Amino acid sequence: MTLDSTDLFGALFDRRVVPVLVPMPAPRPYSYAVPEGMAVEAGSIVQVPLGPRLVVGVVWDGLDDGTVDPTKLKEIEKVFDCPPLTRDMRAFLDWVASYTVTPPGLVARMALRAPTAFDPEPMVEALRLTERRPERMTSARERVLATASDGFSWTRSGLAHAAGVSSGVIDGLAAQGVFETVFMPPPPVVATPDPDFAAPRLEGPQKEAAADLLTAVEERKFSVSLIDGVTGSGKTEVYFEAVAATLRAGKQVLILLPEIALTASFLERFQDRFGAKPAEWHSDLAPRTREKVWRQVTTGQVRVVAGARSALFLPFEDLGLIIVDEEHDPAYKQEDRVFYNARDMAVVRGRIGGFPVVLVSATPSVESRVNGEVGRYRPIHLPTRFGDAALPQLGVVDMRRHPPERGGFLSPVLLNQVGKAIGRGEQALLFLNRRGYAPLTLCRVCGHRFQCPDCSSWLVEHRFRGQIQCHHCGYSERTPEACPECGTLDHLVACGPGVERIAEEVERHFPDARTIVLSSDLMGVKRLRLELEAIARGEADIVIGTQLVAKGHNFPMMTLVGIVDADLGLANGDPRAAERTFQLLSQVTGRAGRTGLKSLGLLQTYQPQHPVMQAIVSGDSDAFYDREIHERERAALPPFGRLASIIVSADARSDAEGHARALRNAAPRVDGISVLGPAEAPLALIRGRHRFRLLVHGRRNSDMQSFLKAMIAGGPKERGSISVQLDVDPQSFL
Ligand code: ADP
Ligand code: ZN
User: Fold this and answer.
1) Distance (Å, whole) CA 203 – CA 525
2) Measured distance CA(542)–CA(504) in Å, rounded
3) In which band, very low, low, confident or very high, does the pLDDT at 15 lie, cut at 50, 70 and 90?
4) CATH classification of 204-387, choosing from 3.20.20.120, 3.40.50.300, 3.20.20.70, 3.40.50.10330?
5) From the CA of 689, which ligand is nearest?
6) pLDDT tens per residue across span 650-659
7) N or C, which end of the chain is more exposed by having fewer CB within 10 Å?
8) Coil, strand or helix: which one is 173?
């Protein structure tokens, strides 16, 4: 066979033209020319011109077909000195893009969220002792010389600190040539965890659970385990064994947590077990730290990351295990730009990378529970609390029989128990998932209700701040003295309770107690961490909090948990309302009695017979799950069927509605898939945009993605202010 000139040109072109995925909503990578002498490979992170800008992109897979003339293309500007994205990572990003029906460039952008981390970290200036000695010796100088005589290089501040002198002393010595300047690699963001630092002695069912898990780790292939155990049963200790085994095997570990910014206690626990903290990854990291972590994850210097859902998109050098703690938590779902569920995508990443994934929860999602029952996941149970800690005794307070006093929200039964707990020197937690003072404010004279000008929602009064606020868009104004409608002074009434109002009621009843309100709008993350630590040390008697107190904190003296409104989450039309309420209430009541003290959880409810209340009080979660699973199966809801939402929004209501209708008409006819709507969304207006929803329902085996693509392709173009969002496996129906 001979090679003719076109083949030869084809081959040359192949080498000189590469597809580059740019962070744009384009359906596929763009072609770029590789300049003479530049070496790139699939996965290389590069800088390319895009219109008037330079953007960061990734050289993607797939050869050019050789038909493009490289001289007509823009050239790659630069290749960053940074490990290329691995083949597994590229396959993962492609998979997520296709599953969520999102342009791949937008998904890849999530892996590149550290703007200047792509170049190596600069070396750090350091000092090393020379042969020269100072002309005049002082005791401070002697200390410095003694400290630095270990032969190592020191940073200026490190040496000053170690020798107990001011940095002026060091500068003086350096000026006399006693030190020379050298450059060292930058220090790691975290020390290396030691798998054998402080291994616990596992007990009873923990041993068996850990052995099961280790089997999964040692197989070194893809599997999903579901650790299902009551709060305080030792789930964390058990999965730490899998972390240790993976570290020993030389692989990296990712631990996903729903709200990492708040879990200082988790980081400390990890340190107690492994002698070093994991690297953190979440949206509150300082930019410099963020860049260091990103960089050191790609080079393998960082061995363990504990992070929020976005950590799933970090380009690990050699990932070998993912733990998804609190796997049922709705915070794993991102509903912005790329709509994905980090729990589900973690499983995909494990499958592509051929390593085990461990899901952990005291109240697993119905989806995971079903996967466990049918054998897709390996179920691991931890039925009892560790040591002498007992689960709290749980009861309902029937609010019809024990109503609160006028203007109050706490029944005498609950107040009585609060008094007893603090009387014993213990702590009480009152939980209400509502920020602010009151969810609705109205004028007693004319009935005017304060509504957000840009959203279909009521303004929430925040009395501590003297504001009324929209919880959807953040709009706020000073709480007016007069009604803007009828002008009457001092006739505004607060309707319903928020945490601030409960605090007021508590202070009326227990004026001498130390009461604290914990709510995300009242303090930043740092302050919140400090408050949580103070509470754990016993520096508060009564804690009133929203759902951020539900997660992972360990309050040793907390022996009473009161749920102010257990019915709150049941009212909306969400198919997961019962499941969510069950999970949240179990989690909150699980805060009580972590240290062997007798404890109590009370649920204030107007529907004590509701299956959720019954399941929690009886402790029979199996019956609850059986019921939920049966209901889902009957209605072919996930995991027995598939759902996708299409949200159409526009500045004008008629545009949104018209576009949604047209999309519906463009839906292909496919057996087993049907489209419901369009209907005005329950949140019909957000930030001045009108919203309509379509719900696509399919059988379990239906090809939802192709259906959605066909619908969008067959529908009208998005013009003007119209925008269409696709949400595969929706969690929110608002
Ligand atoms: P979960 O994650 O299921 O809520 P944890 O792992 O947090 O449970 O365990 C609850 C408490 O019991 C923690 O303080 C933990 O350190 C302690 N604990 C659990 N198992 C052991 C063990 N085998 N040895 C010592 N302490 C343990
Ligand atoms: Zn608003």
Assistant:
1) 35
2) 12
3) low
4) 3.40.50.300
5) 2
6) 999 999 999 9
7) N
8) helix
